[in-house]
Amino acid sequence: GNAPPGVDPEAFSWFQAVDADRSGYISVKELKQALVNSNWSTFNDETCLLMINMFDKTRSGRIDLYGFSALLNFIRQWKNLFQQYDRDQSGSISFSELQQAFSQMGYNLSPQFSQLLLARYAQRSSNPSIQLDRFIQICMQLQSTTDAFREKDTGLVGNVRLSYEDFLTMVVTRMM
């Protein structure tokens, strides 16, 4: 068949290929099998779940054709940004590239924080770097927690005072 109105034909044909069980929906498992990083590793479960949840309007844990089409557009935008920050065109983001990316995105984060992210999200190696899936995950989580912080930092001073439970509430509602 042809793509319905408002759906990119490429997204439609890819949806049909990815929808392995022919349910008319894409699950986290199906999405994970469809997306690969530049090193041919599949996208990790956490990133796939974050993205499914972002485009799952019914809260069913899966997305329909329209959600999938929007998700592909979302991934294309992130991939373009990723390639812009991948200055050496290695297919991954190194420590210095990550620092530059954060700075250009308007985040004033210490080298120690970037190192912490590399330790948490990069594949273990002598020269750790971030793949596209983890870059998307880090940026989505950073944006979400920044938004939560700004809700409390009404004076935009860069500091807030909160109770432990308020902090936990911020994290759980934004990250889980």
Plain-language structure description:
The mean pLDDT is 90. The protein starts with 8 loop residues before the first helix and ends with a helix. The chain has 2 domains: 85 residues, Recoverin, domain 1; 86 residues, EF-hand (Recoverin, domain 1, Orthogonal Bundle). The protein is mainly alpha-helical and 176 residues long. Helix 2 packs across helix 3, helix 3 crosses helix 7 and helix 7 crosses helix 8. The protein is globular, with a radius of gyration of 18 Å.
Entry summary:
This protein has helices spanning 9-18, 28-34, 45-55, 65-85, 95-104, 111-121, 132-152, 164-175, and strands at residues 26-27, 62-63. By secondary structure, it is an all-alpha fold. It has two domains: 1-85, Recoverin, domain 1, CATH 1.10.238.10; 90-175, EF-hand (Recoverin, domain 1).
